[in-house]
Amino acid sequence: MTRKSICVKIVMIRKLGQQLRINRSKIRETSDTNTDFDDLNGAIHSGYFLKDGLGNNEDFYYLNLLVTVTADSVDELEWKCAEMKKLLLSQDMNVQPCSFRQEQAFLSSLPLVSLEKHLFERSKRNVLTLGAASCYPYTSYEMCDDNGILLGVNKHNNSLIIVDIFDSNVYKNANIAILGTSGAGKSFTMQLMATRMRRKGIQVFIVAPLKGHEFHRACSNIGGEFIQISPASPNCINVMEIRKVDKSVDELLDGPGVEKSLLAAKIQRLHIFFSLLIPDMSHEERQLLDDALIRTYANLGITHDNATLDDPDDPEQYRTMPVLGDLYDTLKEVPDTRRLANIINRLVHGSARTFNQQTNVSLDNKYTVLDISELTGDLLTVGMFVALDYVWDKAKENRTEEKAIFIDECWQLIGANSNRLAAEFVLEIFKIIRGYGGSAICATQDINDFFALEDGKYGKGIINNAKTKILLNLEDEEARRVQSLLRLSEAEVMEITHFERGSGLISTNNNNVTVPCCKSNCVRTGSADSLGMPNSAQSCLALTWGRCLSCWMPTPNPGITLSRTGAITISIF
Asked: CA-CA distance, 484 to 493, in Å (whole number)?
């Protein structure tokens, strides 16, 4: 700040002090019922506001506001001006038409940085630095990474939102949390991100506990693997299988590590499985179950020594693993564990006996969907854990490869109907998947249930461990709950509660970007013959791009009005 500006500010503060003293003396002579009292009282408050601002290193400015209204006819112009006046007066803004000075007002509104002197004197008002900064129009945040996936178009500046969540220089982790009410577009958003990640060669796993059929068409069209887990399906994931993991990459990066018991790690996760299946299991039964699991593996020659896992006939493979039926037989041998045996009998000899077989599916495909939507009741949460456990083992194989785990309806595992062990398992994935070069992406529609278990400990943990959040349409109560977590403004909360389907707010790196819904008429969903391409190519086009290039052409700034020839212009200040 120059010496001249400092001197000017000192003079202004001195004059403000003099005017404040004059106004205080005048207000003593007026009664509080006099109209002059309100004017003097307002002037005193404004004077103190200016004096405090100038004393806190703010600068003084004059602000002029001109509103240009255009129309195709005089009647339409008069109606628009009347509506504009009503709007501005409702905001306590004094409005005056530029009568007989329309030409000067129009020339002043042009980007020539030249305001007619008479209009300047009539329309000026004083503001401090904060008030002037709030009028600066270019405050929107841009998200445009070099090697990312397209998520949409920035509402404020029409720039493309391209995000590379695996860029550790920009994002602390690659996790994403998608929140929205039913029908807001969560599943489509997940599918859009998954197909575009697959296009980049990223390994994609999708766990779909509800409406799994929504993922089937895209999966089959891009050559993915669609695995359906249900009592009526022949597909099975053996929950008791200890899977062989290729650790050559870990040894190359870190050197030989300490050998850990794979059996102990597997039994620890099996306790989560049985706690979901048998929620009322006592501490004594947990201990008896632990003994039964060790005996079941021992019957097939598997102990805490990892060398016992190798098949004697083929050392490159593991032994044949026990299934739930083997554990059932072990539990039936002891009277104290027969209650547990009777409960898991449904998975061995009952309607869900497809769980009682060896794993017959593979996760080698780059795009794999595990559909468990046909499981109901307590089996849904159990099946979701089995699928996620299988995916987690696969995701930890190679830390140098990028991979993404999509968990739809995550509240099923961390909500009120789940338990602490299962919620901790999901939270652990969000916490450590970054170390395996991966991303955990969850979506949920029941915010209250998402934060229900242990006073929201696990829901908040997932939100805090997801660097990027995508907020779709939410109900008022849900939006208020999210507001305190993400520190959203009132305007952003209002936007969230009024979003159309497909519109969302992307929050990352302490910045929020609104992505509006934009429907394209250029992508049709007709027959393959009408589009001149095979069915697979047609669907890939719609899912991979979603919008044609003509829909990405920049549109005029909403703050700039483009009028046709002969339009009548009026400026209001």
From this structure: 11
Residue with tokens 């998200």: 143
CA distance 284 to 338: 13
DSSP class per residue in 274-293 = HHHH-TT--HHHHHHHHHHH
Beta strands in 241-307 (DSSP E): none
Q: Compute φ and ψ for 75, nearest 5 degrees.
A: -60, -45
Indicate yes or no: pTM above 0.85.
no
Helices 476-486 and 490-497 meet at what angle, rounded to 10? 140
231 Cβ contact partners less than 8 Å away, ≥ 6 residues apart: 351, 352, 353, 354, 374, 375, 379
Helices vs. strands in the chain: H and E counts, helices first: 22, 15
Identify the CA nearest to 408 among candidates 387, 433, 378. 387
492, HSE (Cβ side, Cα atoms, 13 Å): 20
pLDDT in tens, 14-39: 887 788 788 878 777 776 666 677 77
Which position has the token pair 């969302």?
504
Stated as kind and residue range, the H or E segment containing 237 is none
Q: Which amino acid is at 359?
A: T
What pLDDT, on the 0 to 100 scale, is given for residue 34?
67
Distance CA 342, CA 24 (A): 87
Q: Which two tokens stand for residue 468?
A: 């990027």
Half-sphere exposure of 36 (CA within 13 A, CB side): 9
CA distances from residue 283 to 289, 335, 353, 395, 526 in whole angstroms, order as listed: 10, 16, 27, 32, 59
Beta strands (DSSP E) in 76-158 are: 125-128, 149-153
Gap between the Cα atoms of 159 and 141, Å rounded = 10
For residue 60, the one-letter residue type is: F
pLDDT tens for residues 94-120?
888 888 888 888 888 888 878 888 888
Distances (CA, A) of 498 to 112, 114, 351, 479, 539: 38, 40, 45, 11, 30
Query: pLDDT per residue over 152-189, tens digit each?
Result: 888 877 788 888 889 888 888 899 999 988 888 888 88
Q: What is the DSSP string of 332-357?
A: HTSGGGHHHHHHHHHHHTSTTGGGSS
Whether the CB-CB separation of 215 and 399 falls below 8 Å is answered with: no
CB hemisphere CA count around 65 (13 angstroms):
12
Distance CA(190)–CA(66), nearest Å, equals 45
Query: Encoding tokens for residue 512?
Result: 């929020």
Count how many Cα atoms sit within 13 Å of the Cα of residue 168 in the half-sphere of its side chain.
7
Q: Which two tokens stand for residue 440?
A: 């955990």
Cα–Cα nearest to 50, from 124, 130, 133: 130
Helix/strand/coil for 109: helix
The residue behind tokens 């936007």 is 495
HSE, side-chain direction, 13 A CA sphere, residue 60: 19
Cβ count near 237 (within 10 Å): 22
- Return all residues near 177 (Cβ < 8 A) that are at least 6 apart: 441, 442, 443, 444, 462, 463, 466, 468, 469, 470
Q: Is 433 left (phi over 0), alpha (psi -120 to 50) or beta?
A: alpha
